[in-house]
């Protein structure tokens, strides 16, 4: 949703996961045998028309397929004029649920069966996500950074995109996402032990995830 919105801007180019072998195999003629600096120069920060003012690409902090580019993060950290759009999701329970649903091959035609979620695994995942986000933000602390949440995109799209354009220093235009938000039915529809989990996490920092 964020990528298609930015890429629709006449003065921006927002590329896909340029260091994910699953994506580049379908669209590009390189693989992870090409050094990261060469990928950046040839396929990402190449020459564009003068009207293009901002160029970027998607990169997961962790958990996504990643090729053999062990020095990429340090290369990016040392890249001048690099601006960071840090995308997160406020509700880490919904993020966890989304990961489970992504494992269903045909989610459009298949109604997911409700599952029992292990509270220990949930808390470990919540903690790991927060830790990785903090590590990421600290790693790029010397770069201009804007934090955007999925919830902001869905609930206040216009303001969020205005703030992003201001942050990136591009002309202001009205943007629309090429990908719409997904339906968000009640989490309890998918979690058999939802009420037990809600009670267990009631007096913790994670309690707000269950007030939906």
Describe this structure in words.
With about 210 residues, this protein is mainly α. The protein folds into two domains: about 1-85 and about 145-180, no CATH class; about 90-130 and about 180-210, no CATH class. It is about 40% helix and about 10% strand. The protein contains nine helices and four strands, in the order αβααβαβααβααα. Strands 1-2 form a two-stranded parallel sheet. It has a two-stranded parallel ribbon with strand order 3-4. The model has no long low-confidence stretch (mean pLDDT about 90).
Which descriptors would you attach to this protein?
4 strands; single chain; 2 domains; 212 residues; mainly alpha; two-stranded parallel sheet
Brief summary:
This protein is mostly helical and 212 residues long. The protein has helices spanning 2-7, 21-27, 36-44, 72-77, 92-101, 119-139, 150-155, 157-168, 194-200, and strands spanning 12-15, 54-57, 84-88, 145-149.
The total of beta strands comes to 4
Content-based structural category: mainly alpha
Domains counted in the coordinates: how many?
2
User: Low-confidence parts, pLDDT < 50 over ≥5 residues?
Assistant: none
Averaged pLDDT? 91
Q: How many angstroms does the end-to-end distance come to?
A: 22 Å
What is the helical fraction, as a range of percent?
A: 25-40%
Looking across the biggest beta sheet, what order are the strands in? Answer: 1-2
How is the main sheet built? 2 strands, parallel
Count of helix runs: 9
Percent strand: 5-15%
Shape: globular
Q: Can you write the helix and strand succession as a string?
A: HEHHEHEHHEHHH
Q: Could you tell me the radius of gyration in angstroms? A: 19 Å
